[in-house]
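Give me C-alpha cells for this 266-residue protein.
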Amino acid sequence: MSKQYYFTLKGFWGRVRDEYNYYTKRPWNLQQVGEFWDTVDDYDEVNEQLYTYFRRFTNSYDLALKHLKNDKYKMLDVQARSGKGSLFWHEMGKIRSSVCVDFSDYLISLADRRLKNSGLKYKNVKVLDFPLPFKNGEFDLVCSYETIEHIYDFRTFFDELVRVLSSDGILILTCPNRAWEWVHWLTAAININHSEGPHRFLKRSELMECFRKNNMKILEENSTIILPFNNKLSVSIDRFMEKYLPQFIKSMIALRRTFIMVKGDS
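Here you go.
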C-alpha cells in the first residue's frame, strides 16, 4: 500500500493486523485480489529498484530459450501487472502478440500506458472468475509470474493455464518458496516492501500435484535469489551461490521457483 497510508493512517500495528488478515482469511476471490492491487499506487516505483523483480523474466527466458521453436508466439501474460513481462518478451523478439490478464483496474492502466507505444500487438483483459475467457489451446506461450499463490482456487487456475495452452506450447510458472512466507510478512509489516495482499505460498508438493493431474512435463526447473538485496556486492554473492550451491540446497533456501513446462503428450 502507499507510504502515506502506512505512515499516517495505521502505523505499524495496523500493518501487522492487515498482514495477519491477508494471511489467515479463507477463502478470498479474484475481486479482492484486484481491489488490493488497486491500492499499491507505488508498484512500479518500488519494483524498479528491486534486483529480485526483473530476475523473474531474465531467468525464465534463459531456461526456456533452448525450447523455443520460433519467434512468433502468441503470449498469455496472467496477472500481467504493469506489463513488464509482455514488454520483456517483445523486446527479446519472441512474441507476435500478448493478452495481458489482470484482476486490478489500476495495474491494467499501468500495462496499457507501458505497452501502447511499444510496437507490441496487445490486449488487456480483466478477469474476476474462472474459466478464463479464451479458447482451448489459444496460446503458444503462457506465462504466470508470481501469481498462483494469489489464487485461492489455485488448482482450477492451473487447470485453466493448461487448457488455453496449445498442444506444443510452453508454460512458464514462477512462484515464491513457501519457506519465505515469514520474510514477506515481516517486510510488509515494517514497510520495507509492499504487501502481498491475499495470498498463500504453496508447497512444492502442491505444485507437483497440479502438474501431474494435468500431465505436464517439466523441461527445466531452478531456484533463484538467495540474497534478495540490491547492492552490487550482494548481487555478486547471490550469483556465486546460485552457481555453486547444489540444487537440492537451493530448492530449500532460495526465494523463487521457476518451472518451464509442456504438455506431456507433446
